[in-house]
Each structure stands twice: as C-alpha cells, then as structure tokens.
Specification:
Strand content: under 5%
CATH class: Mainly Alpha
Structural class: mainly alpha
Helix content: over 70%
Largest sheet: none
Distance between the termini: 41 Å
Shape: elongated
Number of helices: 12
CATH superfamily: Tetratricopeptide repeat domain
Length: about 230
C-alpha cells in the first residue's frame, strides 16, 4: 500500500534530495586530500573520488572512497564523503552507517552530523535529524546547511515558525543559498503568507540552476498569484 503525498510535501522531499544532497556534498568536498598524494594511497583514491563526484559520477565516487578506506581504514573524511554520495544515490542506510563510522573515529566532525541529518530527513526520522543538526551547530555554528537540514525537519513536523527561523539563520550566513529561499517560501505558503512566499520563490528562481525545481517554483507562483475563487451565492 502506498500514499500519494500532497503536492507541497512532494516539493519538500524533492528539494531535500535534489538540492540538499548536492549542497551537502559541496560542503564536504572542502575536505580534499593532498594533491600530490602517492598513487595508490588513501589520499590518492580520495582525490579520485572527489573528481568523480564533481563530474556527477557518484557510483565511481563510492568505489574510490571505498578504495581509500581499504588503504586507510581510519580516514574519517572518506566515510563522510562517501555518505554524501550515498545520499545522492538514495542509499540512506549506508549513508547513516558511514556517518556513524566517521563519528566513531572523530566525534568532532560537524559535516558527519549534517550528512546524517540529511539521511534521517529522507527516512522520516525528523527528531533524530534535528538532534544531529543541533550537534553540528554546537561544533561549528556557521555552517548554513545545518540550519537548512533542521528547517526541513521542522517543516515536516509542521513547525513553520522554527523552519522560517532556521532559513533566516542560513540566509544570514549565505545570502545566495537558493534552497534557503525555497524552504522558507514553503513555510510561508503553509502559513498563508502569500506575498512572502512569492518573493522567496522568485529569489530562488534567480539563484537556482536546477531547471526542474525552477519549474516547480514557477508553478507555485502561478498558483499563489491566482485570484481567490468567488464565493457561492
């Protein structure tokens, strides 16, 4: 048995996977390895995996992160980045397992908490996602994606006030973070704040490079701009 989600919920999940996964990965690729690493070393495989991910080949990214881990089993950043690739490949259980392993090696990795929160959001475990975002923020307060992940969880829980507050925090840190505007627009729409929702959808369209989600935002603007149906007499 399956349930067809309401249109708005579908948009939230779309954005979680399509934009959040990519942004999460781009945060993680700041953990690049040594450019002059010896061939066959963990850092060499790590750099190869990074390049595959940049080119959108996440399957080969996983293969090379796995090779890096085989050579250097304590290379925590390889688990963190492989988790990001697994999220994009929709293997959320493997992503969580990789984040667990990374955190067992180093409990002070905010990006591992951020990735695990993203996976928990996709699995519908919003309380756990919020806890992981809280831990990431406690370790490093200026990672915008932690606030976005928490905003997504609050949105799914129906707490639009907290979702908007977290989007505001994220956009203070990065005014060009397109998904911050999208998620805030969805929260405004849920609260009936039509003008604010339209403004944020328009800002999202200006900043985003995702054609499918731009089309979704345009549809939302058309829907919100339509005159209210006249009452019956």
């Amino acid at each position: 048995m399956f349930v067809i989600l309401p249109r708005r919920s579908f948009l939230v999940r779309c954005l979680t996977l399509i934009i959040l996964g990519i942004i999460t990965f781009s945060l993680l690729v700041t953990l690049t390895g040594c450019e002059a690493a010896p061939e066959g070393s963990g850092e060499w495989y790590f750099s190869r995996a990074y390049q595959y991910a940049l080119n959108g080949d996440y399957q080969n990214a996983v293969v090379n992160y796995t090779n890096a881990i085989k050579v250097e089993p304590l290379l925590a950043k390889a688990y963190v980045n492989r988790a990001a690739a697994y999220i994009i490949l929709k293997d959320f259980d493997m992503a969580i397992a990789d984040c667990d392993k990374a955190l067992s090696l180093d409990s002070n990795l905010p990006l591992a908490y951020i990735n695990r929160a993203s996976a928990y959001n996709e699995k519908g475990d919003y309380n756990q996602a919020i806890q992981d975002c809280n831990k990431a923020i406690a370790l490093q307060y200026n990672l915008a994606q932690a606030y976005i992940n928490r905003a997504i969880a609050y949105n799914h829980q129906g707490d639009m006030g907290k979702s908007i507050a977290d989007c505001n925090e994220a956009l203070e840190l990065d005014p060009n973070l397109s998904d911050g505007y999208f998620h805030r627009a969805l929260a405004y729409e849920a609260l009936g704040k039509t003008d604010e929702a339209i403004a944020d959808f328009r800002q999202f369209i200006t900043l985003s490079k995702n054609d499918a989600l731009i089309a979704s935002a345009q549809q939302e603007i058309v829907k919100l701009s339509a005159p209210a149906p006249s009452g019956t007499h």
